[in-house]
Design brief:
71 residues, mainly alpha, globular
């Protein structure tokens, strides 16, 4: 279980860190994006152009293996 506030905070941090390094953030998200909660991902790509956001969201599908099964 991860608190929603911390998920948003990590997304905000990724977005801020990726601002001067957009290509680096994109590469990070493409390689590790399936392990990142969807809310974090949405916050991280918030400043990307709409077309790039759509491309990233379609390329990064959540992994069912990395998510705990709800009780």
């Amino acid at each position: 279980f991860v608190a929603v506030g911390s998920v948003k905070a990590v997304g905000w941090l990724l977005r801020k860190a990726g601002k001067p390094h957009a290509q680096r953030l994109e590469e990070f998200l493409l390689t590790r994006g399936t392990l990142i909660p969807r809310t974090t991902l949405l916050y991280a790509i918030e400043r990307f152009p709409a077309v790039k956001r759509a491309e990233l969201l379609s390329a990064i599908k959540p992994s069912t293996k990395s998510r705990p099964i709800p009780c």
